[in-house]
Amino acid sequence: MGKYDNVEGIARRTMILFFLIDTSNSMSGTKIGEVNDAIEGVIPEIKEISSSNADALIKIACLTFSTGVKWMYPNPVDVNDFKWSYVNAGGMTEMGKAFEVLNEKLSRNEFMAEVAGSYAPAIFLLSDGAPTDEYKDAIEKLKKNNWFKYALKAAVAIGDDADKDMLASFTGDDELVLTAHSPEALRKVIRFVSVTASKIGSKSSVSAQTTNAKQDDFAEQITEFNSDLIDSQNDNW
Amino acid sequence: MIIGNKEISNITSLAISQIGASHLDSGICEDSSAVYQDSNMAIACVADGHGDSRCFRANLGSKFAVEIGIQCVKEFVANQPNLDFNDTKEIDKAFVQLKTYILFKWLERTKNHLLAHPIEDREIGLMDHKDYKEYQKEGIFKSYPIIYGSTFILGCVTNGFYFILQLGDGDAAVDNKKFTMPLPEDPRCFGPYTTSLCNDDAIDSFRHYYAKGNPKAIMVSTDGLGKSFAEEHRFLDLLGVIEKNIVESGVEAAKPELTAFFERLTELGSHDDISLGAIVRVGE
């Protein structure tokens, strides 16, 4: 028997990809259908990144918000075991509540419990409207959370009714808010942001004095993608 | 109490660097490690060249860091025989000088390497555009150290005195009845981010710890080892197993077993390169 056969507690570093999905009434029909199809469709690509290229195992956490909020699974799930459950739309847009519970989970006592190996997460917010609850306090608290500060963040405004200023406040940069004017564009955005965030988020990096290289790299790629997206879109919701 | 003028005995040392599972395709291990031992001191040093794409000569940066670290600490111990251990101000001042010297030598070595080995065509695409323009014009560029970016961790034992130096992520543990990690955490080493020898303000992140005594072991390791464990106590448990193995079997027998284990560990754990430098007391 080898000297190291009984070593316990071996684990890979993890990076959590968060989806925050608006499931309010206005998302009903094509919009929520596209969100379901697009996220389900991108999971195999993220599995591939997790198993072959990444420095970290990728886990997925999904929070839906409408009248109240709901985590799809109680804990982040290894992308290899992740199964997308179709979400339905209906109700209000309690985004402030969503920020509040996200802040709670971005803690070493909660989802970031794998202290030895948690990478800063990637957080992707999808919405077609504006919060119907008080959100400003919640977003300010969230911005003070270190995990959130270091996270790769992007948002997609689904159609023109989305509150883009609020989404920019969430991402910290209006260039990280992409607008999807059609089902096809929404699908492309979900795929691109999820794959890019997974690739960049799961790699290690050097701390800089004033900037965060991974966030810069992510912003650069999202901005480039967005300019192509804007050129190719017709309004079609 | 003075540093370095008494002989040490019953000490053995070992260094291993194992390529990470995620680096097998490239075949390049970006970690380096080495140990040095003479009758007055034992030194173990590891360094982790960054995986960041901008750090495309990081394997060399870590190699230089380990070589320079050992050389500078050898000189430090040899030249400080009358340092009064009870004068903590004096000791801290000496350590600040040592750290500054290590940084200076690393920056000098990397600069000389770049001047002697110009940027190759395949490396141009990995550089920041502004840096490349500056390089084309000047033959060097202000942020050149990033291409060699590396962490640095060193442990040294003399008779009745030991110390640790660390810049960036990774771990340095001391066994005084049980393994603990005495250095304060660097808040800028967070998630996947690490401070580095290549940072402009590297000296501010360069930590040190020293103490009187003769610990049973000092182990320094790159983050690929510690981050293969979800919980810190599991990692410290492993160090205990390694120490026991070295004490019972000797370095020659322990090394291949440990290498084989690290090969499995990187696959199951961090996927990163793993380096360990160990100084172990084998008996009195």
What is the CATH third-level topology name of chain B? Phosphatase 2c, domain 1
Query: Major sheet of chain B: order of its strands?
Result: 1-11-10-6-7
Q: Overall mean pLDDT score of chain A? A: 88
- Can you identify the CATH class of chain B? Alpha Beta
Relevant CATH superfamily of chain A: von Willebrand factor, type A domain
Span of the ends, CA to CA of chain A: 64 Å
Order of helix and strand elements from N to C terminus of chain B? EEEHHHHEEEEEHEEHHHE
Helix tally of chain A equals 7
Q: Please state roughly what percent of the residues of chain A sit in beta strands, choosing from under 5%, 5-15%, 15-25%, 25-35%, 35-45% or over 45%.
A: 15-25%
Sheet of most strands of chain B? 5 strands, antiparallel
Radius of gyration of chain B: 19 Å
Strand tally of chain A, please? 8
The CATH topology of chain A is Rossmann fold
Helix content of chain B: 25-40%
Quickly count the helices of chain B: 8
Strand segment count of chain B: 11
Q: What is the name of the CATH architecture of chain A?
A: 3-Layer(aba) Sandwich
Q: Which secondary-structure class do the elements of chain A indicate?
A: alpha/beta
The CATH top-level class label of chain A: Alpha Beta
End-to-end separation of chain B in angstroms reads 21 Å
What can you tell me about this protein's structure?
The complex is a heterodimer of chains A (237) and B (284). Chain A has 237 residues and is of the alpha/beta class. The mean pLDDT of chain A is 88. In chain A, a hairpin with a 1-residue loop joins strand 2 and strand 3. Chain A is globular, with a radius of gyration of 18 Å. Chain A has a single domain, classed as Rossmann fold (3-Layer(aba) Sandwich), CATH 3.40.50. Chain B is an alpha+beta fold and 284 residues long. In chain B, strands 1-11-10-6-7 form a five-stranded antiparallel β-sheet. In chain B, strand 6 and strand 7 form a beta hairpin. The longest helix of chain B is centred in the middle third of the chain and has 29 residues. Chain B is globular, with a radius of gyration of 19 Å. Chains A and B meet through helix 4 and strand 8 of A and strand 8, helix 7 and helix 8 of B.
